[in-house]
What we know:
The protein is mainly beta and 455 residues long.
Amino acid sequence: MGPTRKPNVCRQLSRRALGFFSRDAGVVQRTNLGILRALVCQESTKFKNVWTTHSKSPIAYERGRIYFDNYRCCVSSVASEPRKLYEMPKCSKSEKIEDALLWECPVGEILPNPSDYKSSLIALTAHNWLFRISATTGKVLEKIYLASYCKFRYLSWDTPQEVIAVKSAQNKGSVLARQAGIQQSVLLYLAVFHVLPFSLIGILEINKKIFGNVTDATLSHGILIVMYSSGLVRLYSFQAITEQFMQQKLDLGCACRWGGTAGTVGEAPFGIPCNIKITDTPPLLFEVSSLENAFQIGGHPWHYIITPNKKKQKGVFHICALKDNSLNENLPIVTASGRVVKKNFNLLDDDPEQETFKIVDYEDELDLLSVVAVTQIDAEGKAHLDFHCNEYGTLLKSIPLVESWDVTYSHEVYFDRDLVLHIEQKPSRVFSCYVYQMVCDPAEEETTNRSCEKE
């Protein structure tokens, strides 16, 4: 299946040095990634476990950086052995970072400060501050106080690298109010910002009096997505909502009077008032029913992915055209991450009695499909990470993971260029991180170099 000729890395490097790819910068990048792909997949290349650590707090990974202690400590995984980039001062539980996003400099925009051209961590603290932190030094570059009327807890991209949504915890009301049968009408709040420099779009409340018995809501690509316990998902235009229901335009750092109180927008203790209050049901863009509210939208022309709203259909995904809800029979197989698999390979069929697939992902830069397979041996499980050709499905490389794998634990595996990282959550909130890095056999490289010199 597929081409079998092994790429000649030295020849590609020589052609690059001679300027064969200079007419298009994208060609150089693709050539570099092609060289890396060949090195990753060659038989002599190994992935060595270079670092293992354990923590009592969650461990996060993002683009070559490993975060510990609620993002207070940052370790680079790019070096031959992970090294600490920075460690922020210790803080109280009320000041810890709850959630964070990595922001990277946009291309082609003129930014006000030199530090703006470097990566930043956008962090949400437990006491409702939004920080922009240098990704290399841990220094706080910007900070915004959100509000005191709710507890903000989650960060997500509305538009990747451009607009963020900060979501509050759901408003359950006090114990006494619940015992008295008093229902809270406001379920949650969404604060929306343009990033770098930070500018406020607005804070929106999700009110059950307007939307009905809604169970959750989020913002994605300018669409307000509202979810119900029945599996119903409804979509609304966030821009239309802001235009119709914004009570007052607010600017960060400017004086404001709201509800008889005066202060500066984004500074404590005033914070940011909820300035988008929906008083009537906004125009509905689209609605669909899906099991467990599983819903994704995208593509061109627009398509959406759902799981039919029946328990026996769990794990089944349908791709439908947004314009007429028709099922696209040409794209019937989709991974849990939303990636379309255009072909079905017998090579990817698992056998529950021998080994099972636990994580399937796609490395877009190297165009490789990565599959974590686990084999249960008595009480202990052993796992390996397999790389498959995305075009033909051929198994190209298998990497054994040295640590045991308990299928009852929570696992995350990242394959990022020449790095494999496994994060495991054990009982009693014990987190483990295993880092593997690519190691090439020097004897193989020497043989390859000699064969290249003969051409």
